[in-house]
Structures
1.
Amino acid sequence: MSEIIETKDLQKQYQMGDVTVEALKGIDFTVREGEFVAIMGPSGSGKSTLLHLLGGLDLASGGEVFLANRRLTRLGDTEVTVMRRRHVGFVFQFFNLLPTLTVTENVALPLLLDGQSMKENATRVAEILELVNMGNRAVHTPDQLSGGEQQRVAIARALVTNPKILLADEPTGNLDSASGEHLLRILRRACDDAGQTIVIVTHNPTAAAFADRVVFLQDGALVHEILGGPFDVPAITAAIARMNV
């Protein structure tokens, strides 16, 4: 399989008053097409920063990001926006659903932003809602849904454009164990059945166990990885203990 994500000497610094914080210190990282990768590490290790740079949500301070054979760090803002909209789906810990829209409208939003019509995509939206077991909640608004249901809608929204890449930042962080496991099985199925590339940031060994590969960040550096998943949870827990992360 070819590489669909690659970083070379990726760096990110933040200025906090007179202090320069090095969030990422020259990360070399690749993800193959159709691979499921989990990124782990302690708070402040640079996990979310790396994910945001991979998806073009933030600008690197140095180095390069290649996404689907395009060099993000050489594209203009409009080109990055179009690239992200058409090739990348995002799932965030806090759902980010629009409260005044129905479930169907929230899921269809990426298509509408890309200039496509709701009518033309009604079947696609309905299919995605069935995939995440939310077809019976299509006309509800987010305030009528549980946390687990809202996260399933967020996944449907991320998948509706059939993106090559799905990036998820702590997707199970606000869910109970049953809802979290259901979400992870949806992601695993998207990888196995649809060949989509999945990258998640997580603190949760149970979530990381669904991945094909787990990489560990510490103090802005990639310090370790384990291969050969999906894993069992004790294997992930043992790796965390060895790395003291």
Note: The CA atoms of residues 29 and 196 lie 18 Å apart.
2.
Amino acid sequence: MMTQMFSAESTTDEVLNGIDLSGKRVLVTGVSAGIGVETARALAAHGAEVVGAARDLDKARTATKGIALDLVELDLASLASVRACADFLLAKGQKFDLVIANAGVMACPKGTTKDGFETQFGTNHLGHFVFVNRILPLFKPVSRLVNLSSAGHRLADVDLDDPNFEHTPYAEFTAYGRSKTANILFAVEFDRRHKAAGIRATAVHPGVIATELSRHMTPEIVRQVSSSTPGNQSAPRQMKTIPQGAATSVWAGITAPAELVGGRYCEDCHVAEIAEEPGVRAGVHAYAVNPERAKALWAKSEEMVGERF
């Protein structure tokens, strides 16, 4: 049982206060900037052995200078890179207590990954889908997966008939919303499949933070998403610092009881409730935690990547 409540203002170090992670191994993807770097720093500072994955290792080395961690190369927009990284970790055979699927892209121009998938769905969801499932043998019997999602999931459900926008007009934030919904649904189905073995999964919204993730946010895109969100006249959510933004990841991965967060969507260091009202930025949309939708996405994802898990 938790003895302390945390909030949107809580930081990583506050969430981990008094917790000794010595002997714990953690994998964090996307450790070249922002929340990923802070997540790795906080976990390492509390004694965890951290493995950080990044597409650009030189950038990651610079960003994590002074943090005790091992780096591995992982380009989520290339299934060849994803499989090579997974194979490398499997060959080493060292198991993990926690995997945080943190890396991602947001609102980027229309494009495709090296395997021909729409960039955001392919990078944010399919890359992690293959990577996490491939390293499943490295999850300890009592371990967790934390998928970084977003309140942006409220912008769009997944489209299982046209995931690559082959027949649908492309919009940056529609694509982002689909990928963030997929991150939640992946956690829901992963948790269902593996909770009997003591492996739990959750998805988290870090909050609104100024990081490199927003580098594609042109004024035109901001106007587009604002005008396309009904009821968007509600007050904007308060910006978080990076340590506040990373807090929900470590809270869900370390501090919160596994039974509380397993198969759920978390924000501001608590489990979110279903919230369907247009324009509301808090809470989770029902389609993102629908177990049948999660199973359908899993099957579609396997079909797309040509691999069964």
Note: The chain has ten helices and ten strands.
3.
Amino acid sequence: MTHLSRAIALTTALIGTQDANADPVLEWNDIMLTAYAGQNPVNAARSAATTQLAVFEAVNATTREYQPYLGSVFALPGASTEAAAIAAAHGVIRAYAPEHRPMLNERREASLAAIANGPAKHAGIAVGEAAAAAMLAARANDGSAQIETHIPTSTAPGEWQLTPGSTCGSLAHWRHLRPFGIGNPRHFRLEPPPALQSTRYARALNEIRRVGGVNSDARPQDRADVAQFYAAASPTRVWNAIVKQVAVAQGRSLTHTARALALVNMAMSDACIGAFDTKYRYRLWRPVTAIRNAHLDGNFFTHADPEFTSFVATPCHPGYASAHASSSYAARAVLDRIYGKRGHFITMPGDVVRGVKLQYTAFEQITRDIDDACVYGGIHFRFDLEAGAKLGEHVGSHVYRENLVCLRNWGDRDRVGL
């Protein structure tokens, strides 16, 4: 059940902001989210994964607690961990968000000014800059720049068609992006969606028709709130904010938090790749198209509504599987293992949708709301989300199991490690 409150007065939108600002890993994670806010969600996921891996690689080079990602970045003994984190984050964000360079340069100087001058600080800056350069080089030819779109050539029932406001199917090239931590994304490809004539398909379509339209009177206000919130807040923003709050609440070390952010963002980006591989493999139409053309689907239990419009804007790419669900369940799979599944106090930012604040005590509650947001928003069938959950769990588990494993310092190991 969602824990939704629009009346609770909080001293800050995010728990632990004051303490978090003393931690350069979390401070620069906030700066990163601001700088990447204008990017589309899947590109923001890639940018965030690159950034947080650079931060992890730099920080871990100074503490040597976990298996490195690249293994080519080394720190002099005594190098400042804090300076390494600042320089690494600044180096990647500056490259990926050049329009923010004046602000980023000012923030870098302010952050570094809090660290005493000396060999340790200079060594930390050097390792951070080296980590940023290494990660940028590693992602230079990963397929993100080879833009590919999709124009439907068939109007057969079930085939994806242009959605209202779209001119093409976007992000078709994302299925070819080189992943961060899973190998070949085709190994995670999902089974086909339900047949148009199936009971499962009819049940999913009728649910959307009832609760997902712009004029629906069957959508409770709390479901309308989550639909609007998660349409406005990207998975990258949501799950990085969650890590920040939980890491502060549990008092985790700087290296531990750097690793958690790296794994979460790796998993989200790789889940997006897997989702787009599945999307353009099956090219299933979106609910807005399906409901308007239900008289063509051959299913006795569905009925057309030619005036149907989704409550939130329908994205311009195939629906199966949901990328939002895929990336969110991937993040949850990582966080369940690092921080424990429940017993948290998480408050979503209150500045995303005016008057809407969401509160949770378990990661499962968040993914459940994200599923509902897509259904009550009218943009995904329920089975799109179930498929995304399966893909995300698989990807997140793999990323956690195979990357950045603990080498020592068992006193700071994961709360629920594998």
Note: The first strand starts at residue 3 and ends at 5.
4.
Amino acid sequence: MAVNENQPDWGQMAEKFDLWLPQIEPVGNAMLNALAARAGDSILDVASGTGEPALTLARRLKGDAEITGVDAAQGMVDAAMAKVEREAIPGIHFESMPAENLKFDDKTFHKVMCRFGVMLFDNPAKGLREMQRVLKVGGRMVIAVWSAPEKMPTLRWSHEIFKDRLPPENQPPLEAATSLGDPELLEKMVTDAGFHGVSVMSKRFDYQFETFDDYWDLLEASDILKRQLDALPNVDKAQLKNEVWQFAEEFMCADGLVIPHEYLIASGVK
């Protein structure tokens, strides 16, 4: 994952970040379907965080491919490598590396992917050009980014709650997270990076919890709002929880709390 000034400290929250993996698993599965990796491929996962979806792919291919994951945060890399070692997963390793300066030769990989990373790069256009550079001719790239702010409810709720309490540099990164949420903008950026046959699709998945308390407990346990709460040491958490509930209440249904989110999958070929 990239590291910008108004984002969480991804390195410090690496282990806790895994608490969210079950919620975003559908995105990784959709990306892997679009990537269509196969035995014998060399594959790069950029901004892979604690290892997904690279680890899922490695488990599927069972050592019949060479998979490399990179992330700018050493804490994320350490967490990913711990999983590799714990499960003895073959054919995969992770390195600490910024997306905008990949330490690989031109035309190294058959496939490149990036889940929810490009929009948070310090320089998304440069990161995409780097991904294109390290692809072999005919190689395929697949990325996922968040859609528009109005289609990302949970981050929008956080933004609304903190916008009048904190200066801009300490607010949740709604603008950065949704900066590539316009399909036309994303298509142009991918095309400008040198890819052809570019496709951009809007897709939906849901955060699902049995109760609102389950959702709030995950927010607290994962430290996703740690930066904001640390900046407000005397904040009334019960009041914050009540304000979030005012947003979440409309998404309660017979199945519990079901919060729809939209994301974009872009793919292209070198």
Note: The first strand starts at residue 42 and ends at 46.
